[in-house]
Design brief:
Layout (H helix, E strand, L loop, with lengths): L13 H14 L15 E9 L7 H11 L1 E9 L3 H11 L5 E4 L5 H8 L14 H4 L3 H6 L9 E4 L5 E6 H6 L8 H13 L11 E3 L9 H8 L6 E3 L5 E3 L4 H16 L11 H9 L3 E7 L2 H9 L8 E4 L12 E2 L5 E6 L8 H14 L2 H8 L7 E3 L5 E3 L2 H7 L20 H13 L3 E2 L9 H22 L5 H30 L1
Parallel strand pairs: 1-2, 1-3, 6-9, 11-15
Antiparallel strand pairs: 3-12, 4-12, 5-9, 5-10, 7-8, 13-14
Helix pairs in contact: 9-10, 11-12, 17-18
Length: 503
Amino acid sequence: MKKPTVSKLASVGLASMLLLAGCSDSSKTSNNSGDGEKDNGKTEISWLNILHTASPPTDTIINELEKKTNTEIKFSWIPDASKEERINTALASDSLADIVTLTILENSSVRNSLKSGMFWNIEDYLDEFPNLKAIPEEMLKSASTEGKLYGVPFQKDLARNGVVLRKDWLDKLGLEVPKTTEELMEVAKAFTENDPDGNGKNDTTGFMDRSDLIYGVFKTVSSYYGTPNTWEVDSKGEFVPEFETDGYIKTMDYMKKLYDNGWINKDFAVTAKTDQQQNFAQGKGGIYVGALFDAKNLETMAAGIQDNMELALVNDMTSASNSERAIWSGGNGIGGLLAFPRSEVKDEQELKKLLKFVNDLIDTENYTLMTYGIEGTHYKLNDEGAYEIINQDLWQQEVQPFASSRPNETGYNLKDPNPIKAEADEKIAENAEYAVMNPAVPLESPTFTTQGSELQKIITDATYQYILGDISLADFKKAVKNWNDQGGKTIKEEYKEAYKATN
């Protein structure tokens, strides 16, 4: 009996996962080698993977990957919208595959499965594979659970955020690109009060923000004030949450001043990201804080509305109280794990074949294939050496679904033909040197797992209320005390103990 063929063109359902589990053991003993290798020397690999596009890819790129890695790959696709439910079901029933994509590492079912020994600890094998050996130690540590590495981490950019400004507005008002939070506030004031678009109307604002304290203005500006990334560990090993630091208070005061003076959109606390971007593209605001690569999308959205819009990207902002350049890291650069279940991967020999496959996917040639496709079919290299998509529909159908399957997204230096996207890529790469990590990412806190989201709501609500002028600083500190009393103190202690045990 062969290892079951799961359709590359169908999203996996529970029935197909159960089929995979029910057949996997016998399939691995049916061939000559007994380790998933066919008579032709190719390694058979099943992969339970996440799909971020409307439909799975055709076989075009899969066939090329199989040739380059000497494998036969059978994908089972889980739609991103239902990944948590589907992965929880697969873990509970042990209905897995040779490789399982785990992207929600904070999920309690995922963490418990990792700690239970369901997946191989791979840390002792990485040195045998050059691309895996090159994964930074800090990233491996962040991807670990209780000090053990239960899969190959998806390597993402360490820090993507920065400031996007209307350069044409700066030029019209005779202003330089700001480099400090103080200068940035002056620009916000000028963009609001000095008619930067020259239409004679009072219809612009400085910051165009959204209701998101993490991916909007707040957390990035907080980095410029030296605020830790969610948590910091002091000299005594105590865990201190970001909202108990001076930088967090300074950031709230900064946002409050913007709000009080009308230098940020008044409805920022209830504005969705799509509306924020549309408003910026329509010329209603001149400062956007978020992922630097959003600049390309902003330009695209402004086409036909503001064709003369010129943007400036800033990734080296500091503040008067913190001259050290810093930017918070999202997830410490970890996008999840490629994990190998012991129920499917029976021995070290088979594990090493799978690790070699993942190692090979990180090669530049395979990264290019999974990013741009096939030269002459999906893309061409233009005169500047940039990768230019030549058939957008075909690329979306055959290539784009693999974007989230790339084990590494960083360090390839492949040039984008869009100038603003190319600049964003460069600045995001520069950010890595100044990225501030969250020390709690690899640590276990049972209280945080069960109560963390509920407790965070106390702080989020109090932060907005302070910025909007509904409560005083004393009231905010009462909310922090409430957070501590309802479970925050326990989280601190649990992280402290977990940190000591793994450092």
